[in-house]
Specification:
Layout lengths: L1 H29 L6 H10 L1 H15 L7 H17 L4 H25 L4 H20 L3 E2 L4 H8 L12 H16 L1 H11 L1 H6 L4 H27 L2 E2 L6 H11 L11 H20 L4 H41 L1
Antiparallel strand pairs: 1-2
Length: about 325
Amino acid sequence: MRNRRFGSLATWDSFLGVMVVAVFAYSAYFVPGFLSSFNISQAVAGVSEKALIVLPMVLLIIAREIDLSVASMLALTSVIFGVLIQAGMPLSAAIAVVLACGAALGALNGILVALVGLPSLVVTLGTLAMFRGAGYIILGSGSVNQLPDSLTNFGINNIGGSPIPWTIAPFLVLAPVFAVVLQKTAIGRRIYAIGGNPEAARYSGVRVRRIRFWLFVTSGFICSIAGIVFTARLANARANNAVGFELDIITMALLGGISVFGGKGRITGVLWALALLAMIRNTLGLSLIGGDTQGTVIGLLLIGVLLFSNSVPRIVEQVRLAKHRSAAKVSR
């Protein structure tokens, strides 16, 4: 069962890889400026925060949970970060406080979902508005623009002489860690077990509530890292940062083969989906197609993925049954 499941995922990963190559080839040939170092740097930088946040989102969806508050946590931690720096706190201390705040925000979601027993969809829909509102209460409609040079240099500089920006570095460090934890460790197997059948996992001795709680804490912690990266990249902190990021992040996870019903998926497919969505948005932007239209395209892509993921298993099962019936007739 495990090998067959991963075999189908490998096929989906291959399909996503082909799509990435196709979009890249089209953009390189038909879209002026796509292959320029500046555009590559901007495209990679533009996806830095989403790439970070999709990592814990993958674990949550596999465990049959979801966190709709991720963009609001990013914005609130960005506001806290900016206010602390504005108040004169040293950069290293401000980073430590913001990371702790992010973990605390995630813990609030975790308590309400794992301990109180509320549905994560409802809880994080509520905290989505609450965290965003808290950002406005702290900073209002203004912004913090006076940031240390070391922070803004991190946000705008590239690694060495390459077109790869420093803002993607946290993702490059954390992505292998998440992949190994999910695919190669006992905790990863327990996350799959929870997503496959929570009751069976509980009766097997898996501490379902504890794992769910720490998954939400991890989500908040990673969102705080994304908040710091976002603040550095845009050189400002404000309460309306990252509005609408949830759509892209969830689309990346589902497009990457993570089942909305839990218990299925791998990080590798999500990486392909991340590259595909980044190139689609970049290509649309270079073609002078606005953000609203881009959001419409991403939304349609998400709906298409859900329809495809629901219909294909049924088609495969019907084909299997047809072959079985045909084989039975031949044997007679």
